[in-house]
Amino acid sequence: MERIVFHIDFDYFYAQCEEVRKPELKTKPVCVCVFSDRGGDSGAIATANYTARKYGVKSGIPISFAKKRLEQRDDAVFLPVDFDYYSEMTEKAMKIMKKNADIFEYVGRDEAYIDVTKRVGKDFTKATQLAQQIKNEIKNKIKLSCSIGVSSNKLISKIASDYQKPDGLTVIEPNKVKEFLESLKIRVIPGIGKKTEERFNEMGMETIKDLKKIDVFTLNKEFGRKNGTYIYNAIRGIDNESVKEKEDSTQYSKMTTLKKDSKNYEFLLENLKELCKQVHDVIIKNDKMFKSIGIYFVQSDLTNKSKSRMLRNSTNNLEELEKNSKQLLLEALENQTITIRRLGVKVADLSEIKGQSDITNYF
Ligand code: DGT
Ligand code: CA
Ligand code: CA
Fold first, then answer.
1. Which residues are catalytic?
2. What number of other Cβ atoms are within 10 A of residue 226's Cβ?
């Protein structure tokens, strides 16, 4: 069955989110940092914008290395991660993708697969237009750029979305797959890490074309049957994995537009309680526990505000959810000047109830 699948991945995601709320950052090297609790510059870079990357800054390196590499740029900016804010951006972006999908599969904070076979009638020209339209809509509505790969399966689309980053759109029609893959370096295959690549390099192989000379038996012997067969198929562009309906299950949230814009505590509390109930229902339905609780608003001037806290222990208790949301609301209202238009409640850092009882059984 011929399919058309998109892989959508946002460019330098955390750093780009920071540029969206502070456009003056765009011309500067921007590094988003996970500071450790040891203080000072201890910690690592989560991601950096493309200006910072030119100086060799990348995900995972120590903050102190990044500072050294950017020594000559006195305009370099180092910001702490703000997960709440990035989640809000993720939610908005995913909404646009979902709207344009026959099947939507959430993969992570900044990426998703969508199957669009039906809505484009298996037509690659229409698919290309749809991909461009999604890029435009995301750019216009939330000011983010992303890269999209379009092909007949998840594997090739994933490789294609990475092919022309940032702001890329790469379409690989079935008759172009062979040519496209053969020119690429071995490491573009998802799952082939640095070590595997080095092993192949030592055997004198650099590109996928080189790799194709190895037969499936040799690959199976080297990597085990499962991985060997995967590699054998992947370099030939073969992947039958379907796009599976999947939502972001790392957090649940509910939001409501208030009957009137307000900053009145009693009125907001009433709405907040209802939202807590709705979120709690989802939690129970999915057998989950949560460890972090947040509330968020859209204010009358359409700006956003959010507040969250981490609990000491995971819970699935409604009273606990209400109590904490109520406290967050009180704190938020302390210096609230603008009225609120929409109100939301969110729980995150989820865990399985099942997992919990397993651990108990274990002991
Ligand atoms: P890209 O897609 O190459 O333009 O750049 P990113 O930053 O979007 O990279 P990606 O898609 O691999 O990762 C998405 C986000 O995940 C990224 O903005 C920050 C976070 N992330 C990635 N790698 C690391 C890491 O090593 N440590 C931490 N803390 N976060 C990471
Ligand atoms: Ca990305
Ligand atoms: Ca990603």
1. 111
2. 9
